[in-house]
Amino acid sequence: MPNRPTEAPPLPAVAFVYQGVRVSIDENRLINLTEMWEAAGRPPNRDPSQWRRKEGARFVHDLASSLNMPVGHIFSTRRGRGGATWGHWQVSLAYAAYLSPAFHRFVNEAFREWAEEVSDPGLKVARAVEAYRRRGRDDGWIADRIEGIGQRKALVAAMADHNCRKVDAVNPFAEATRAISLLVLGATPSELRESRGLPRSARTRDHLDRHELARLRFAESEAERLIKLTRAIGNDECVACCRRAGTAVRQAIDSLDP
């Protein structure tokens, strides 16, 4: 049987979206401060490193002391491709105030909603439904989208349980997504965004129709089942299961075409 990993799957989630820019939260619950700076419009001389050296220095030190943690656990910069500066949620609030009053208010509200959703998880679903309705989506599409989100999380969890790991530029979770999308829909998420004139920050699945959502959900469900059934271990075997599921769904679709 697969060995359960000791950490959460290393796939950054989205903490919030501001002016079309996604701000990530990682598996250690640190917020991407570099993306916060980008979301705020890249104000000059206010990037995370500048803040850390100046106004933020005492705050970071005091917070680390109060939490009895090394500074590196609440504020860290990761080098290399896709490098960024990450901070504890309290650090991110202080940094948001440094960027602008409007941005600070927005982040405060986002974190307030987080706290409410922890105590009442149904609120998150209700808010998502209302947000999609404001965009003109009907209840059928919304139900498909929410079910798809649940299935996507189930697939990621299954891959993590079967020892999938993100290492440097190798991201099996993203590779599985690309493989299934390419096989089932004929294009990767980035290609779909480009062909439909969507910005890079757009959530591709928010712009798919019900049939496309259903096909992806079915492929991801079968991929999850295959990973468990075959006892796949590691990145290559799990991604291979995703490709196999995507191929089967594509063949089923083609068999129904007139």
Draw up the topology in text.
Elements: E1 13-18, E2 21-25, E3 31-32, H1 33-39, H2 48-53, H3 56-67, E4 75-78, E5 84-87, H4 89-99, H5 101-119, H6 122-134, H7 139-161, H8 172-185, H9 189-195, H10 210-229, H11 234-256
Antiparallel strand pairs: 1-2, 3-5, 4-5
Helix pairs in contact: 3-4, 4-5, 6-7, 7-10, 8-10, 8-11, 10-11
Key descriptive features of the protein:
258 residues, mainly alpha, Mlu1-box Binding Protein, DNA-binding Domain, 3-stranded antiparallel beta sheet, two-stranded antiparallel ribbon, 11 helices, disordered N terminus, KilA-N domain protein
Radius of gyration using CA atoms only: 20 Å
- Measured by DSSP, the beta-strand proportion falls in 5-15%
Which strand order spans the largest sheet, edge to edge or round the barrel? 3-5-4
How many DSSP H or I helices? 11
Report how far the terminal alpha carbons are from each other. 44 Å
Beta strand count:
5
The share of residues in helices is: 55-70%
The biggest beta sheet reads: 3 strands, antiparallel
Question: Which class do the helix and strand fractions yield?
Answer: mainly alpha
Structurally, how many domains make up the residues? 2
Q: Choose one word for the global shape.
A: globular
Spell the H/E element sequence.
EEEHHHEEHHHHHHHH
Provide mean pLDDT, rounded.
85
Poorly predicted ranges: 1-12
Domain KilA-N: 12-114
InterPro entries: KilA/APSES_HTH, KilA_N
Organism: Tautonia plasticadhaerens
Protein name: KilA-N domain protein
